[in-house]
Design a protein that fits this description.
It is a single chain. This protein is α/β, with parallel strands linked by helices. Among the domains are: 2-194, Immunoglobulin-like, CATH 2.60.40.3800; 504-537, no CATH class. Helices cover 28% and strands 29% of the residues. The strands form 9 sheets. A 6-stranded mixed sheet has the order 23-22-24-28-29-32, sandwiched between helices. Strands 1, 6, 10 and 11 form a 4-stranded antiparallel sheet that branches. The relative contact order is 0.13.
Length: 643
């Protein structure tokens, strides 16, 4: 009898949520006007059982493990597992109604549930082991979360098809003051929907467009010929042509409108941008993050170009309040509760594969073009490709018995890639193998992938030996010493700033001073220096890796600003990663399969990340992560080469 009552309460709770959504969006999550329907309404039903439930005593707290991949992680509030189900439909589908029926089982807890962590910047000044308790939640008789179900929709790609994603998220019901929790045992999801009558995505003339300045036109012709020969039908469009032919509020928006037109008119799947941000602009997102030590007020993002459509299939401007500030949000966690606001509502799902060759000269362009051609021609069946290099150490030196960078690889990357048949080389500070000499020796021997977890800077990466006894780094001079020829890895830099393509030497000199001494005088001095016309821009770390002649790497995923990560910790043990850059890192390698196209791999990791989190409208950390991590390389690259 009790179970039946809980099921009824669950449905009633859903109906309350559903009613509120109907009021704000008449075409989704609610009953539409049946008289206007012109095609058949359909139902999709999914039932599943949650059978593997563990309540684990982790020291000061307990945490709940139901073998799910997601969490509700709001700093200072109970860390709860999240049951997430992804559904996809052809883009243009109308979701008429969603119903969720649950049967709950109540558990009495011996301790409070572990609180969610604050985000940590992957920087030496910050350690992530800070546990906060939101007393208003933990001392409340009310249920947490207040809404046990959440829904999100977005337009994206699945198997290279344009789809509408519908994510249904179900949470346990926690009563913190009573130390009880109700966990779903059985769940039934019923979706009523209406398929579109037609599709605008019927063109199939080209696979890829290359966007760059006319100064690179002759340099990229060999690449176009190579791509066409391997079945990636490609064409060039110069920025000069786009700026003259397309409308938009700025040059960046003009490029985005051109990409939208190319998807619909030519059927393109990939967009290759050639040039740094001064040659082909990146979207400068109005994303303010204030930590008290490291602050930033914008993020450069190529995801802006990839996210063409909103969940209604309309153009996604990334400026929903029309104030000409794009991807706008604000995040200040110097105090608690954290002050944050997401202003522009964006779904972040990529609708096309985007990659950038970060060259600043014709010579660099020629180098990268040659590397792409030779990689795709020579790599297949080469034994060196089946090695992955894992780099890491004690990211946040403290008293933990585990070292975050190494722990991540042992927990995720190593077992994932071992299953794919890769040889694992661990270049760890605890093994005394994280050194420029040993790193270069391994890269020179050849590796298909390189995954680094630790601190990052505009011109280097670096992490600590156990408990911070020594800090070790790998810098631009070490990249220049490489001689790996065409044995080129694909890199993931799970770190700050390694993709800061607008690297300005004054930033390196002035920003630390401004952070320490945020006086009007310091800001005045920076404005004076900014006004001086001189060459201050230099290649960033990942850009230098890619443009290295006779070696380096073929592509990299890297961040244009400081990275954020969240480790759940209790009793000096890492329980799991619950948000931030390392989640994207994990999903990137879980998305690998032999012969995959590089941007398809990156898109899948972005999709998994978005589906992992509960609600992009409430977690700015996730917006930051998705905006700042960009693919630098050929989006159509055949990983491992062509047979």
């Amino acid at each position: 009898m009790i179970k039946k009552v809980l099921s009824i309460l669950c449905v009633l709770s859903f109906l309350n949520i559903n009613m509120s959504v109907i009021e704000s969006d008449s075409i989704s999550f609610g009953v539409t006007d049946n008289q206007n329907q012109t095609n058949k309404t359909q139902l999709k039903t999914e039932k599943f059982l949650i059978s593997d439930i563990e309540i684990i005593d982790s020291g000061d707290y307990v945490y709940i493990d139901i073998k799910s991949d997601s969490y509700i992680s709001e700093p200072g509030k109970p860390l709860l597992p999240l049951i997430s189900k992804e559904f996809s439909f052809p883009l243009g589908t109308k979701i008429l109604d969603v119903n969720v029926n649950c049967e709950y089982v109540e558990h009495i807890l011996s301790k409070k549930i572990l609180p969610s962590p604050k985000p940590s910047i992957i920087s030496n000044e910050f350690v992530q082991n800070n546990k906060l308790l939101n007393e208003s939640i933990y001392n409340s008789p009310s249920v947490y979360p207040s809404e046990p179900f959440s829904f999100s929709r977005g337009a994206g790609l699945k198997n290279n098809k344009h789809v509408l994603f519908l994510n249904v998220n179900i949470a346990p019901l926690c009563y913190p003051i009573e130390n009880t929790i109700k966990i779903p045992k059985t769940i039934e999801i019923i979706i009523e929907y209406q398929l579109p009558t037609d599709s605008i995505f019927t063109a199939d003339e080209y696979d890829m467009v290359i966007i760059t300045s006319e100064i690179f036109s002759s340099s990229i012709q060999p690449l176009i010929d190579h791509k066409n020969a391997y079945g990636i039908q490609s064409f060039l469009k110069t920025t000069e042509e786009i700026f003259n032919e397309y409308e938009g509020r700025d040059d960046t928006e003009k490029i985005k409108y051109f990409i939208k037109n190319s998807i619909e008119e030519f059927g393109i799947k990939y967009v290759m941008l050639i040039g740094n941000d001064q040659i082909v602009p990146m979207r400068k997102c109005a994303n303010t993050v204030i930590t008290g030590v490291i602050n930033w007020h914008y993020i450069l993002s190529d995801l802006y170009y990839a996210d063409i459509y909103d969940n209604k299939g309309e153009f996604s401007s990334w400026d929903t309040n029309q104030n000409e500030k794009y991807g706008e949000c604000y995040y200040d966690y110097r105090s608690y509760p954290i002050d944050m606001e997401i202003i522009d509502i964006v779904d972040f799902y990529p609708d096309v594969g985007i990659g950038r060759l970060p060259c600043s000269s014709i010579n660099e362009c020629n180098i990268i073009v040659d590397k792409i051609i030779q990689y795709e021609k020579q790599t297949y069946h080469e034994n060196w490709f089946n090695t992955i290099l894992l780099l890491g150490g004690d990211t946040f030196p403290d008293n933990l018995s585990l070292y975050e960078g190494e722990w991540f690889h042992e927990q995720y990357t190593a077992p994932t890639m071992k299953q794919q048949g890769f040889t694992i080389e661990k270049l760890f500070t605890s093994k005394s193998t994280f050194s420029p000499t040993i790193i270069n020796e391994n890269i020179n021997n050849g590796a298909g992938f390189l995954n680094y977890v630790g601190h990052g800077y505009t011109d280097s990466i670096g992490t600590s030996s156990p408990h911070g006894i020594e800090h070790m780094s790998y810098s631009l001079s070490d990249i220049n010493a490489l001689s790996n020829d065409y044995r080129l890895p694909i890199c993931f830099f799970d770190a700050c700033l390694t993709g800061k393509i607008d690297y300005d030497i004054l930033d390196k000199l002035m920003l630390p001073l401004i952070s320490l001494y945020p006086t009007p005088f310091m800001h005045f001095m920076k404005r004076i220096l900014d006004s001086i016309e001189t060459q201050r821009h230099f290649p960033c770390f990942s850009g230098s890796f890619i443009t290295k002649q006779s070696g380096g790497c073929i592509a990299a995923v890297a961040a244009t600003q400081p990275g954020l990560v969240g480790f759940a910790i209790d009793d000096e043990e890492i329980i799991d990663i619950v948000f931030g850059s390392s989640i994207l890192n994990r999903f990137f390698f879980e998305s690998y399969e032999p012969g995959i196209i590089l941007s398809d791999m990156f898109i899948e990791s972005q999709n998994l990340y978005i589906n992992f989190i509960r609600n992009l409208d409430s977690m700015i950390v996730d917006c930051v992560t998705l905006q700042e991590f960009n693919l630098f390389g050929d989006p159509s690259l055949k990983v491992g080469g062509y047979p």
